[in-house]
Specification:
The protein is mainly alpha-helical and 105 residues long. It has 2 domains: 32 residues, no CATH class; 63 residues, Lyase 2-enoyl-coa Hydratase, Chain  A, domain 2 (Orthogonal Bundle), CATH 1.10.12.10. The protein has 5 helices and no strands. The chain is flat. It starts with 9 loop residues before the first helix and ends in a 14-residue tail after the last helix.
Length: 105
Amino acid sequence: FMLTARFVEAQEALDVGLVNYVYRPEDLLDSAVGLAGQIAENPDWQLRKIKRLVHEDYLERDVSIVVRHERETFREAQGTEAHREALVAFRERRKPNFHPGRSAP
């Protein structure tokens, strides 16, 4: 789309996967705040690790390097307080109750 300079309507952008959500203008702020709240419910170290993986491996052509980075990050997370809470919450079919900043690897 960018190379054609063609204007893309919101619904088409959603249909082809350029965007994840489309909102009416009057719903945009509330929806954005809601999404930010969902993201903020996760452990802060987890969010930092995800952002690091995306930024570091964005242009990496060797998939084995990307997989290695993901595997290392996954190993770091295993056994943390947040990991244990996520497993218990899954078994109990409830939302996990993470404590920001307390369960960093």
